Amino acid sequence: MPKRGVVRKNLRLTQAKIDKAKRILGTRTETETIEQALDLVAFKKEVVEGIGRLAGTKSVRDIFSKDAA
């Protein structure tokens, strides 16, 4: 699917969730809040996938396992 530029959307969203995200993210507008929240979702996926790849290399040691002592 080709990427597109900015598009107008008509969404039904919970105002309380937008307000909470706006406070947490420190954003000024609702659009900025939603854009940043979507960026964070994409980033989270990249981090989780990266950790999964790293864990498979045995470069990460489980310090909480019984064998770690």
Q: What is the subunit organization of this protein?
A: single chain
Q: Would you tell me the structural class of the helices and strands?
A: mainly alpha
Give the termini distance in whole angstroms.
50 Å
- Strand runs, count: 0
Strand content: under 5%
Mean pLDDT: 87
Q: Count of helical segments?
A: 2
The gross shape turns out to be elongated
The low-confidence runs, each spanning 5 or more residues with pLDDT under 50, are: none
Major beta-sheet overview: none
Helicity range? 40-55%
Radius of gyration from the alpha-carbon trace, in angstroms? 19 Å
- What order do the helices and strands follow? HH
Descriptive account of the structure:
It is a single chain. With about 70 residues, the chain is an all-alpha fold. The protein has a domain at about 15-60. It is built from two helices and no strands. The chain has helices spanning about 15-25, 30-55.
Short description:
The protein has 69 residues and is mostly helical. The protein has helices at residues 15-25, 30-55. It starts with 14 loop residues before the first helix and ends in a 14-residue tail after the last helix.
Topology:
Blueprint: H1 15-25, H2 30-55
Helix pairs in contact: 1-2
Keywords:
2 helices, single chain, 54% helix, 69 residues, mainly alpha
